[in-house]
Amino acid sequence: METKHPTVDSKYIQQHLANERTYLAWLRTSVAIMGVGTLAATLEAKGVLGHQPFSYAGLALGLLAILMGAIISIVSTYNYLSNRKAINEQTFRAVGSLVWWVTAGVVLLAVILGFYIYEMLHDGL
């Protein structure tokens, strides 16, 4: 019968599980951002928000949101793997810059989306 030996990861189970939950939260955020982008592009393409369908502003906004969601997915995967390695090597340090960059990007996207929807609704009234 095969004897099971503890792994390095098993010494820090709580930290690895917390790292995984954080990673999954980042992925949910990126999927939500891509969903908002898809919604904006779809509404614009169907002419729901404005008079003229296929406006480049709505499509560009949608593509920007989808690109941002993809970038967040890539960066969060890199961050997860880096944290995993740092936890096992006991050299983990929290990185605040990732949080600030993502927050700035999401706020900027929200402001642009807000102006876009305001203009579309204002022109439609």
- Following the backbone from N to C, one meets helices and strands in this order, namely HHH
State which percent range the strand residues make up. under 5%
Total helices: the number is 3
Structural class: mainly alpha
Mean pLDDT: 82
Number of domains: 1
- In total, the number of strands is 0
Could you describe the 3D structure shown?
The chain is about 75% helix and about 0% strand. The chain has three helices and no strands. It has helices at about 15-45, 55-90, 95-125. Helix 1 (about 15-45) runs antiparallel to helix 2 (about 55-90) and helix 2 packs antiparallel against helix 3 (about 95-125). The longest helix has about 35 residues, at about 55-90. The chain is elongated and about 70 Å long.
Summarize the topology.
Elements: H1 13-45, H2 56-89, H3 97-124
Helix pairs in contact: 1-2, 2-3
Comma- or semicolon-separated keywords:
single chain, 76% helix, 125 residues, mainly alpha, elongated
Give a short synopsis of this structure.
With 125 residues, the chain is mostly helical.
